[in-house]
Specification:
Radius of gyration of chain A: 22 Å
Oligomer: heterotrimer
Strand order of the largest sheet of chain A: 2-1-3-4
Largest interface: A-C, 68 and 62 residues
Shape of chain A: globular
CATH architecture of the largest domain in chain A: Up-down Bundle
Helix content of chain A: 40-55%
Structural class of chain B: alpha/beta
Strand content of chain B: 5-15%
CATH class of the largest domain in chain A: Mainly Alpha
Structural class of chain A: alpha/beta
Largest sheet of chain B: 5 strands, parallel
Chains: A alpha/beta, B alpha/beta, C mainly alpha
Shape of chain B: elongated
Chain lengths: 445, 364, 220
């Protein structure tokens, strides 16, 4: 059991990996699995990133964890030090020299255990660091690669591994099994007097859901249904492919990530979908819109859009018409959808169509502060106090806008906002963009 | 004869006191002495014993002697040197053969232990010194014998001082400078190809009056070699302002801009050219539009070419060879390290695949 | 070894070896990186192939994005003083241009010596400030390794010896000039093996991210 301190920074917390290990592998086996995984992941892109770092430390200045704590261990590039070390010793062109002169030591199991906190508890994969890095290094991609190794080694925080493992077994990380979904939809249909197509055999559009919505925000599902029906689209949910949340990706579980991805792909193929709509979930967008085809091994035969993109398209096409809602609003751009996903204009088109008084946060979308719950962090309870510390940044940003309504397009962000609201007794509640649209659908004439 | 002072000789030859003072003034000016030192030198020259100079030549071209005798006329300093002090010189004397050898022996015997031995030319050591011999004696043994009776040795010219042209790569004769042979008494190097006449005479007079002058690390008198050509060059302002002649006939060359780009070695060359100048103070090479060759520095033949800028590589090897060799080796190294890395990855992949087939991803 | 032989050594064999090391190292490292496996991205691009964004980011990342300026711009400026001063000294000084012409055949007009000395002095000052920052900032202390300090030293030495040669400090000019060129040679030889390789990798890593983000339509 390793409980050495993480680095020597002031106030460096003890990092008791404790029981946050999976399986009963020996240390040597864990290390070997992690190194094997690191090795598998290296490619030209990660090599360029790992070679190019000049240790300027600017990524720290972009990272909410460093900004809020001043602890140098939270410097983003430092969080990937083990994989950097492995790369320099084993894969980089100068690897023979590094070994010859002993410039990089072999990674140890103690280091991997120490780095669990840095790789999981204190990185939401938000990607602010990528935008500040003078070398343009995409650090979150390296964090994900490092998480692959950690997962292989069975070194994922238990709180995150729990839902990940459940997703493998049940098809959903939070217990939203096929059965639960069916019941939930039946119940929502009755309660809200809305048609929610499930398991149609053919449809143009497959709409997917986040388990956070199924379990916590079921009204979001109703809202999606009402909006889709309003538009008059040929769409369906599918009980064999609904879960868009991909906790496996966040844990570093490649196998589970592929399985989760393939369920959606197969469902879409089964109904000959032309479009797959991803729900209000940031990592779902990352996992399916940008990583999906690569998991599939070839281009997908349908297009993939985030629901906000789809709504903006329909607004432009005139199939979606909205009533006016002139309240002052501010929009929280989810990191994985906006900064790392490229969807920045669509939500703003929707606010314009609503006639809302949109008060942008400063800075957004590129420099937007993360809610602090992404990357699986929201599930890791030992990281709660740290997460609350960084949430200050987000609250301040929201407060500075003076807007009455806080809107976002990610239910994971929403979950984090809810938790923060509770903890700080804050008067702001995060709202769903889709629900806002559903509430303002114009009457059909 | 050696009891005479310099002043006596000059008076005997009809030189007035006024002319003597002029001699002193010109010598002290050339040496850049302070007024106090100048007065001191004048006094000493009046009473100093006439020096005896024995001048020997080995592997040389006689350019140094040409410089000395033809620099300007009637040079008062050279008058002192040639007519008064010079007891023996192969080239200038009328005698030849056995008579010349006898004259040399006599001159050395008369002033044994006191004479100033001036040497020009380098000394070959290869083939037992066979490349240069006088009267059946090799230069090296001749020099050793002559140096044995010298109070001091003055190596005149870059060949004697640093080996010069014979010393240039590949140095077939095994030439060495005088200082390599004479190690037991002071050697003053007056380098240059050739050196400035006033510098040669000035140093000998200085030695006569004050002894060995202050020398730099290459044993050159600081009075004349204390500064670089660049330090004192009248074209220096153009260097500082970045104005350079690029060819010998461009506008820059006509405007008298700095010759650095044309290979001027002024920045690393220590000599008195910009101040003492040549041909009776007429000009010096840079003033005549040619870059300094660096002739007063060791190994100036081997600095990569007279017209190659100082900041550029001397380029002894084939550039194409160096570059293409390095590219080929680099590409090979890159391909092999990548191949090793890919092989490692392949093994990791296989290992992961076989692990995948077993139950894994242990649950907690 | 006296000044003249140091100078001849530095201009002669050492330069050739350094040049060979420079080219060899750059080729080794670049080929070694690009001969690794290439990742394939089958996702449907939102906005073209991303090539344009890649190229744009190579330029645009030269200045921090507005969001980050408050926290990083001051050190960026110090860093720029170092880099620009260095570039001016290298590319503006005629003796250096002569070297570049000798190597590449290219040449351009030089700048006055005073300007060069000023730029080099500023650059050296900024470099010292950056070292101070590296030694005092907890983040940089955490990140820094042998490469950072060694590369710093190798970047600093040519500046100082160059200024010494220019101002005639240090007595024996040939020795100082020889050491300056030697320092430059060593910098050349080290460049591809340490962090200074960023002068080349910078374009590739920026371009890679710029292209990846560009095809997603994400801000760069």
């Amino acid at each position: 059991m390793n409980t050495t301190t993480l680095g020597a920074g002031p106030g460096a917390a003890r990092a008791p990996v404790g029981d946050n290990k999976q399986g009963s592998l020996s240390d040597a086996e864990r290390l070997d699995r992690a190194m094997t995984s690191f090795l598998r992941d290296f490619n030209t892109t990660s090599a360029l990133y790992l070679e190019a770092c000049v240790h300027c430390g600017q990524c720290a200045e972009a990272c909410q964890y460093y900004v809020q704590t001043g602890d140098p261990k939270y410097t983003p590039i430092w969080k990937v030090e083990p994989i950097k070390q492995a790369y320099k010793r084993l894969t980089g062109p100068l690897a023979p020299l590094y070994r010859l002169f002993g410039l990089k030591k072999a990674v140890t199991i103690e280091e991997l255990e120490q780095w669990q906190e840095l790789l999981y508890d204190s990185c939401t994969l938000c990607g602010r660091c990528t935008l500040v890095c003078p070398m343009g290094i995409d650090i979150p991609s390296l964090v994900l690669a490092a998480r692959h190794g950690m997962q292989e080694a069975g070194l994922v925080p238990d709180d995150l591994w729990g839902p990940t493992e459940r997703a493998r077994r049940e098809g959903s990380p939070l217990g939203a099994t096929k059965q639960v979904l069916k019941e939930r939809i039946a119940w929502l249909t009755d309660d809200n007097n809305v048609t929610i197509p499930l398991d149609r055999e053919q449809a143009d559009i497959l709409v997917t859901i986040s388990s956070v919505e199924i379990m916590k925000y079921p009204q979001s599902i109703t809202a999606m249904a009402r909006v889709m029906n309003h538009i008059g689209a040929s769409w369906t949910f599918r009980s064999d492919g609904y879960e868009a949340t991909n906790f496996n990706m966040l844990s570093g579980d490649r196998t589970g990530q592929r399985e989760a991805t393939m369920r959606l792909i197969n469902a879409a193929l089964a109904i000959n979908a032309k479009t797959v709509i991803l729900p209000e979930c940031g990592h779902a967008y990352q996992a399916f819109r940008w990583a999906g085809a690569t998991m599939y091994g070839r281009p997908l035969p349908f297009r993939v859009v985030h629901i906000s993109e789809y709504l903006a398209e329909e607004l432009r096409a005139g199939r979606l018409s909205l009533k006016s809602d002139a309240r002052s609003m501010t929009f929280h751009d989810p990191c994985q959808i906006a900064r790392r996903g490229g969807v920045t204009e669509a939500p703003r088109e929707i606010f314009r169509a609503l006639g809302a008084d949109l008060r942008e946060m400063g800075p957004t979308p590129a420099g937007n502060w993360c809610c602090g719950g992404g990357g699986g962090v929201i599930t890791i309870h030992r990281a709660d106090s740290l997460r609350h510390r960084v949430f200050h940044l987000k609250m301040q940003q929201v407060e500075d806008t003076g807007a009455a309504l806080l809107v976002s397009s990610c239910s994971n962000c929403r979950l984090t906002f809810d938790d923060g609201q509770d903890f700080f007794h804050w008067d702001k509640t995060a709202h769903s963009l889709v629900e806002l649209v559903a509430d303002n659908l114009a009457e059909r004439h | 004869m050696t009891d005479e002072t310099i002043r006596d000789v000059l008076t005997r030859r009809g030189l007035s006191r006024r002319a003597f003072l002029q001699v002193c003034a010109s010598v002290t000016a050339a040496l850049a002495l302070s007024p106090a030192e100048a007065a001191d030198m004048t006094k000493r020259l009046e009473t100093a014993e006439r020096p005896t100079v024995i001048y020997l030549s080995y592997q040389e071209c006689t350019g140094c002697l040409e410089s000395l005798t033809r620099s300007f006329s009637p040079g008062i300093a050279s008058l002192i040197f040639n007519d008064i002090s010079l007891a023996y010189n192969d080239t200038l004397q009328a005698a030849a053969g056995q008579a010349a050898e006898t004259a040399k022996d006599t001159a050395m015997k008369n002033a044994w232990g006191k004479y100033v031995l001036v040497v020009d030319g380098s000394v070959p050591l290869a083939q037992n010194g066979a490349y240069c011999a006088v009267a059946g004696r090799s230069a090296v043994s001749d020099l050793k014998r002559a140096a044995g009776g010298a109070a001091a040795v003055v190596a005149v010219g870059t060949c004697a001082a640093f080996g010069g042209l014979p010393y240039a790569a590949p140095n077939p004769t095994g030439a060495v400078p005088v200082s390599e042979i004479v190690r037991d008494r002071p050697v003053i190097n007056i380098s240059g190809c050739p050196p400035i006449a006033e510098v040669i005479t000035g140093v000998i007079l200085y030695y006569t009056t004050f002894g060995v002058p202050a020398l730099d690390h290459l044993h050159r008198p600081m009075n004349f070699y204390g500064n670089t050509i660049h330090d004192r060059c009248y074209r220096r302002p153009f260097y500082d302002r970045g104005m350079f002649a690029k060819t010998f006939d461009d506008e820059g060359a006509r405007q008298g801009w700095c010759l650095f780009e044309l290979g001027c070695k002024g920045p690393i060359t220590h000599n008195a050219c910009p101040t003492t100048k040549w041909n009776g103070g007429t000009s010096y090479p840079i003033e005549s539009g040619h870059p300094c060759l660096g002739c007063s520095e060791p190994g100036f033949w081997d600095k990569g070419g007279f017209y190659k800028a100082l900041s550029t590589p001397t380029g002894h090897w084939s550039r194409t060879g160096v570059v293409s060799g390095a590219v080929a080796a680099g590409v090979a190294a890159g391909l092999s390290t990548a191949a090793v890395a890919r092989a490692r990855q392949g093994r990791a992949q296989k290992k992961a695949a076989s692990a995948d087939s077993e139950p894994k991803n242990p649950t907690s | 070894m006296n000044g003249a032989s140091v100078l001849d050594f530095a201009r002669g064999p050492v330069f050739e070896i350094a040049l060979a090391m420079l080219i060899f190292g750059i080729a080794w490292r670049l080929v070694g990186i690009f001969a690794l496996r290439r990742p394939v991205d089958y996702s449907e691009p939102r906005a073209g192939t991303g090539w344009g964004s890649g190229l744009r980011m190579i330029v645009s990342r030269s200045w921090p994005r507005r969001e980050f300026r408050e926290r990083v711009l001051h050190w960026d400026i110090v860093s720029y003083i170092f880099h620009v001063g260095y570039a001016v000294a290298i590319l503006g000084y005629v003796p250096h241009i002569m070297l570049i012409r000798n190597l590449t055949g290219l040449q351009w007009p030089g700048l006055p010596g005073g300007v060069i000395a000023f730029a080099a002095g500023l650059s050296a000052g900024a470099l010292l400030a950056l070292l101070g920052h590296r030694l005092t900032s907890p983040v940089l202390r955490r990140l820094s390794n042998f490469d950072d300090y060694f590369s710093w030293l190798l970047a600093f030495t040519p500046l100082v010896t160059g200024l010494m040669a220019y101002y005639g400090i240090g007595g024996n000019y040939q020795m100082v000039l020889g050491l300056h060129i030697l320092a430059g040679d060593i910098l050349f030889a080290w460049l591809p093996f340490g962090k200074i390789m960023h002068v080349i990798l910078l374009a590739f890593s920026r371009g890679t991210t710029g292209a990846a983000y560009g095809r997603r339509g994400a801000p760069i």
